[in-house]
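Protocol step 4 of 5: obtain the predicted structure for the target chain.
Materials: sequence only (see below). No template structures provided, no constraints applied. The aim of this step is simply to have a reference model before the mutagenesis design in step 5. Sequence pasted as it appears in the construct record:
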Amino acid sequence: MDRPALACDPRAPGGADRAGSFAEYEQTTVGDWAVRGYGTVSSTQDIAAGLPAWTAVVAECQTAGRGQWDRSFTSDRGGLYLTAVLPFDGQASRWRGFALAVGWALARSLRSRGIARLRLRWPNDLMIGDRKVGGILVSQGGPGTVCVGLGMNVRNRPWLEDPGLKATACRLADFAPDERLGTDLLSATLLGAIRLAYVKFSQGGLRGFVAELNQSWGAARDVRLELAPGSASAGILGRFRGILPDGDLIIEDSAGKCVAVRSHLVKRLHEC
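Step 4 output (structure tokens):
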């Protein structure tokens, strides 16, 4: 979960050495994916950035896990830390909103495994009730790849690393039967979901997901939008009502009027 400090000891077995190289990994095949399994790494995204498409990196622990806007992400042992590498055609505008599609596919997959209360929070959080269980980060990999990173609390307790997370974080182990939470099983399930999102997004873009996404946010909630530096105002208050086909947010103001807010202007959505 997002936090201001590191969580893993890089000196742990399987960790990174002083030169920043990584211990030997174990490679397996999951469907079309070549999966590299590590112990402790700085970040699965750091490793995945130089790998070919249809490769995935999974680690037991990250010393420099990160989320949106380069916020630190607590990555203690017992969680699932994964980055999947996908082909990318270089047309950034066509892939706008892909992280939302990934979120929908991951939420759908986890709900099918019995996490019935799981929902999305715009733009990249996986939630159970009002607590965060995981986050998604999509970034450029090599010239022809894009990396989809996923950090998820499974059996770990990130609030032991950062007590500030006690009121905002949760873990899958408290909401699902233990036999459904094996890391290998979860990795295979979630890699399948990422592939589904990629294939479906390739065919129809974000428009093909809007209806399903707008059923995945849970009950309407009051929010505060923190706007990016340079915006006309510091923030916007209202009720989140979903997104438009172009990805912009629909916010209902205090008078009951719905207005569109350009997604690229929103730095963070805070639920009130």
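Step 4 remarks: The first strand starts at residue 26 and ends at 30. Residues 97 and 206 are 6 Å apart (CA to CA).
Proceed to step 5.
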